[in-house]
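User: Imidazole glycerol phosphate synthase subunit HisF, Pseudodesulfovibrio senegalensis:
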Amino acid sequence: MLSKRVIPCLDVRDGRLTKGIKFKGNVDIGDPVETARTYYEQGADEIVFYDITASSDGRGIFLDVVEKVASQIFIPFSVGGGINTVQDMRDVLLAGAEKVSVNSGAVKNPDIISEGAARFGAQCVVLGMDVKRVDKSEDIPSGFEVVIHGGRKYMGMDALEWAKTGEALGAGEICLNSIDADGTKDGYDIELTKLVSESVHIPVIASGGAGHPSHMVDAVTKGKASAALIASIVHYGEWTIPDIKQYMADNNVTMRTIW
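Assistant: Predicted structure for Imidazole glycerol phosphate synthase subunit HisF:
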């Protein structure tokens, strides 16, 4: 059985670590470089970095911050935000990332997924999805809609169909973020996570809502996710990564080595 991963997420705005609830009310909570180093030293399996206003601001990602983080950690590092071209992907990889997460840019230009996979390998391309619960309709039969630009723009796209399309185009992984659960610490959207995880053949990272290690256990068991993205639970010192991984291991989840 493949080990499950615990992945801290660094949302960065103007070069600073930030956190909000349901993509709103973001506050400054520290330095992303120092925080990434701390999580690496605690035994995080990977780190995810999002420049959360790059797409909505119509600018490129802050590559200098990416370079500083990459210089401090020696685990897989995924970076997203404002990536709209294969050249953007190349720049992020050269800055030190192992994976590139495409979200808004992929919705607007799906070919970036296949082009990126052909150029750098599918293992480098993560399809980031920000998803909101809506009423089921002909256009949104699953009841989950794709939203871009940091939760600002509804696209009229069914999340499940977009996940399948992303896989078919060559994405090697999906990071599935529930806007409704984001920052609430009430648990992941298990229905959404399971729906997507069971419909694709690539790893799915559950994102949005972690407030207790039991939520992560649910995400990788009931939700069938390959990994759990975490933020508030560690940013505010409520749990450490070693304690989270030990809790999950104690609840029969196969984990990577606990440092």
